[in-house]
Amino acid sequence: MKPRIAQCCCGKTKIQVKANPVIHSVCNCNNCKQRTGSAFGISAYFYDEDVKIIEDATSVYALENDLGEQKRYFCHQCGTTLFWKASVFRGMTGVAGGCFTEDPLPQPTFNADLNNQCTWVSFPPEMNKPLTKDDLPT
Question: Which among 14, 33, 41, 62 counts the fewest CB atoms within 10 Å?
């Protein structure tokens, strides 16, 4: 597979992934809505060994939420949250799906939080299945 590049708005922070996501979902939780400023977030999780930081102008925001401990890496120049690490997804790096602008990712396969979906948002029926613990790699 040809590597994909995800980058922030100003281009000062870039990462490269050399595989397809292990988990690729939309999420309607309040945390993702606030992170993106939108009705949902697109989260693509890759094994750590498939992710390489190629431009790093990040600052870190650490928090604890339903995903356990989480560190969000955002560009200190433009503020884009580009990637994160969450304790529930050990060995993986989450990347904001919308940051793959040159070579977009395919359609997500899960809807990680059906309960908080805005009533005016709809996804294809095949995506309307929640992400469960069984979907997580061991």
Answer: 62
Which residue in this structure is represented by tokens 């005016």?
120
**3-state SS, residue 53:** strand
Residue 34 has pLDDT above 90, yes or no: no
Strands 14-17 and 4-7: antiparallel
d(C-alpha 39, C-alpha 87), whole Å: 24
**Whether the Cβ atoms of residue 43 and residue 23 lie closer than 8 Å to each other:** yes
Helix (H, G, I), strand (E, B) or coil at 126: helix
Instruction: Point out the least confidently predicted range of 8-22, 41-55, 64-78.
Output: 64-78
Supply 84's token pair: 């994160």
- Distance between CA atoms of residues 16 and 4, nearest Å: 6
Write down the pTM of the prediction: 0.89
pLDDT tens digit sequence for 76-122: 999 999 999 999 889 999 999 999 999 999 999 888 888 889 999 98
34 sits in which H/E element = helix 30-36
Q: In sequence order, which ranges of the chain are alpha helices (DSSP H)?
A: 30-36
